[in-house]
Amino acid sequence: MAQDFDAIVIGAGMSGMYQLYRLRELGLSVRVLEAGTNVGGTWYWNRYPGARFDSESYSYQFSFSKDLLNEWDWSEHFAGQPETLRYLNRVADKFDLRKDIQFNSRVKSAHYQEASKAWLTTTENGDTYTSRFLITAVGPLSAFTMPNIPGVETFQGESCHTARWPHEPVSFEGKRIAVIGTGATGVQTIQEVAKTAKTLTVFQRTPNWCTPLHNSKIDKPEMENIRANYDAMFKTCMETFSCFLHTPDPRNTFDTTKEERLAFYEELYASPGFGIWVGNFKDMLTNREANAEISNFVADKIRQRVKDQTTAEKLIPKNHGFGTRRVPMETKYYEVYNQPNVRLIDILETPIERITPHGLKTSAEEFEFDMIIFATGFDAITGAFDRIDIRGVDGVRLKDRWKHGPETYLGMTVDGFPNMLMLVGPHMALGNIPRTIEFNVEWVSNLVHYAKTHGLARVEPTPADVQAWTDHVKALADGSMVFEVNSWMTGYNSNVEGKQVRIVNRYSGSAPDWRAKCNEVAARGYKEMVAA
Ligand code: N01
Per-residue confidence at 529, pLDDT binned at 50, 70, 90? Predict the structure, then answer.
């Protein structure tokens, strides 16, 4: 017998946790279904060595509770995963969230039932739930992908994908270790593993442009200063392009002299966090010559930091410009390649042919390893949706509907999928995600509240609005160099069938613009949403 709730929320990461809190405040009955054994989502699963924030800790936390802000001290400007997970557990304790979360419950399917205008959700354990609203809080980077390398299942040593890292400590001491993948996760992992591994061999397919994080500790007086400034800080985050404390410089690159630009690049390179990516000249990702300037600057930094110039050249991206893929933030990453225990293998030059029981074989060499770490990323944004059998009106599958890329209204709704509301879904602003999450959750909560109080059993956008929003999101991507490059940010995944094609999966306008549009819709009483 299915249990009935006003809303089912899929996922107990940051968005699912806050959604539960908000809907409960509105007096609704809510059940959160979570595959893991505890809260935290991204921060629960990604326990790999060296995992940490790339956003300033205090700008990433929840802002909705003054009490919580007053109670929690951050120990570093960019906190490590264990601290963030402790924080999220504290949030769950403080607001007694766990009592409404069903852990160990991976959702298998969610089907819209026309007769009852409700969703029927089934977990892999066979539990069933009915609810008027289905709220997806599945995360943009949660469906991890193993590499499609032959023999991957035959390796007999220790092996793990970074997004499924064990809860117990893992020692690298005295071990011969391979890391496959050099995205933001690979870079953080490599820095850490290199400290103690007997040997570390990095298998790199595409080098990324990495820049220094410049992390540092926060002492008590500094924490008190930061706290005193919270209101202004969160206001800044709501005004900047992508909700970070950094925002694009209003100048174009060539409005400046060569000396001025180099001085500005030096300043950004020496500053903590994402400033060099999201606080750079405003034409960095639209003007090719401008992009070449910053790319050459960072390439020179890599040449200066890596002693062996053949290795340095391998670490410098040649097929994409700076900032066109997510910039991994690093702490002595390039210096790792000066260590005698570390070796870089360029697998474009010598491809991996297969993984063997004792290691792997490239076109040039056979390697033996005690451990292989797969830092091979995610089937991003739509991947977590694809893995659930979601069916709307007339049994139409969301996966089929999105076969050629997502179609949404405001990134939160899809016509033909009534009462399904998405948190951090496709086609909405991402950036510094918790800032977007809070807005997203509040907008969804207000809509649910409106439907409840107005006796509306069905909330859904019109096909015309979905088409218009999807066209708008695609038009925004036009002319941005980001959308000319293969990466999770363009939905490309070499390991997933049908995903070796670039799509527009993200909203690339400013977060304030996206929020303004959402606010307009709410202010008009959700007139666009077909309701009956
Ligand atoms: O994943 P990725 P990630 N054979 O897709 C390689 C966020 N994040 O987990 O580039 C060989 O970036 C692949 O090669 P290529 C952040 O938004 C946040 O590192 O496809 N190699 C690439 O090198 C980030 O962008 C934080 O040629 C294969 C790597 O694996 C996002 O998560 C920290 C392969 C995958 O890189 C994803 O990062 C970490 C194959 N078959 C991550 N398949 C924080 O801020 C894939 N690769 C805290």
Answer: confident
Could you give the percent of the chain with pLDDT greater than 90? 98
10-66 pLDDT, tens per residue?
999 999 999 999 999 999 999 999 999 999 999 999 999 999 999 999 999 999 999
For 73-84, the pLDDT digits (tens) are: 999 999 999 999
pLDDT at 531 (0 to 100): 60
Write the pLDDT tens digit of every residue in 242-272.
999 999 999 999 999 999 999 999 999 999 9
Pocket test of ligand 1: the residue of 488, 495, 496, 506 to mutate, having most ligand atoms within 8 Å of its CB, is 488
Residue ranges of the alpha helices (H) in 39-80? 42-45, 57-60, 66-71
The atom of ligand 1 lying closest to the CA of 54 is: 45
Phi-psi sector, 381: left (phi>0), alpha (psi -120 to 50), beta: left
Residue 2, pLDDT above cutoff 90 = no
- CA of 487 relative to ligand 1 center, distance in Å: 8
* CA atoms within 13 Å, Cβ hemisphere of 404: 2
- Using a 6 Å cutoff on CB, does residue 141 contact ligand 1? yes
**Dist. CA 52 → ligand 1 center (Å):** 15
Distance CA(207)–CA(215), nearest Å, equals 23
Residue 498 has a CB neighbour count (10 Å cut-off) of 10
Residues 316-325: tens digit of each pLDDT: 999 999 999 9
Domains in the chain, start-ordered, CATH in brackets? 3-39+97-143+380-531 (3.50.50.60)
- Of 454 and 530, the structure prediction assigns the larger pLDDT to 454
What average pLDDT does range 417-443 have in this prediction? Answer: 96
Residue 319 beta carbon below 6 angstroms from any ligand 1 atom: no
* Predicted local distance difference test score (pLDDT) of residue 527: 87
Tell me whether strands 128-136 and 3-10 are parallel, antiparallel or unpaired. parallel
Q: Is the pTM of this model over 0.85?
A: yes
DSSP per-residue letters across 476-525: HHTT-GGGGS-SGGGT--TTSTT-SS----S--S-HHHHHHHHHHHHHTT
110, containing H or E segment:
strand 107-113
Helix, strand, coil share (%) of the chain residues, nearest 5: 35, 20, 45
Gap from CA of 145 to ligand 1 centroid (Å): 10
Cβ of 351 closer than 6 Å to ligand 1, yes or no, is: no
Q: Please indicate whether residue 147, judged by its CB atom, sits closer than 6 Å to ligand 1.
A: yes
**CB 205 less than 6 A from any atom of ligand 1:** yes
Q: Is 323 in the pocket of ligand 1 (CB under 6 A)?
A: no
How many residues would you count in the chain?
A: 532
Q: Is 149 in the pocket of ligand 1 (CB under 6 A)?
A: yes
Nearest to 408, CA basis, from 351, 366, 468: 468
Closest listed residue to residue 367, CA positions, set 145, 151, 205: 151
Ligand 1 contact via 376 beta carbon (within 6 Å) = yes
